[in-house]
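Loading example: each entry is read as two labelled lines plus one structure line.
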Amino acid sequence: AQKITQTQPGMFVQEKEAVTLDCTYDTSDPSYGLFWYKQPSSGEMIFLIYQGSYDQQNATEGRYSLNFQKARKSANLVISASQLGDSAMYFCAMAGLRTYKYIFGTGTRLKVLA
Amino acid sequence: NAGVMQNPRHLVRRRGQEARLRCSPMKGHSHVYWYRQLPEEGLKFMVYLQKENIIDESGMPKERFSAEFPKEGPSILRIQQVVRGDSAAYFCASSQDSDLYEQYFGPGTRLTVT
């Protein structure tokens, strides 16, 4: 069975500092994808970054990077130079090649302090 | 190129009424997925449809819930005889034929049952 675990219900970070949001996963699929989504208070799901299980390099998208450690089954999101607009819920998700369903974690609520 | 569209964005129903949620996938996408997000939780898979076919409804409650994706028109998630526990955000996602990893999410419909 596939599972995503986010152990940090809430995080605080000072504006302009970097923050790491943790995500661990479990799957028996040999090929899978890992995703991070941002959900602001308005409720929509905003795609941030994607990492394929066979990608050799960690994914980066602007201020977002994914620290992918396959052996440890972790896919942590790093946000550099935090901004007030980064305050939101962040969800880690996974999809296996044979199971198209996205499995979501319970989320981390990030608050950026001025 | 419009994204995934959902309507209504907010829906209020009294207990016992029916709720109909609509989802128009992105242009060229023939795969639709419905997810439910209960308050303070992550998204959970409900059902996966292709045009005129239900592929996987394993996450959908057996009673009162149904989904369709007709040849023409949007996908519909229908909840009959709503109860307070149905109050949630319902997200639709779509993908192209050959890229099941990449699901594009709509803005969601927030259902409130009074």
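Chain B has no helices and eleven strands.
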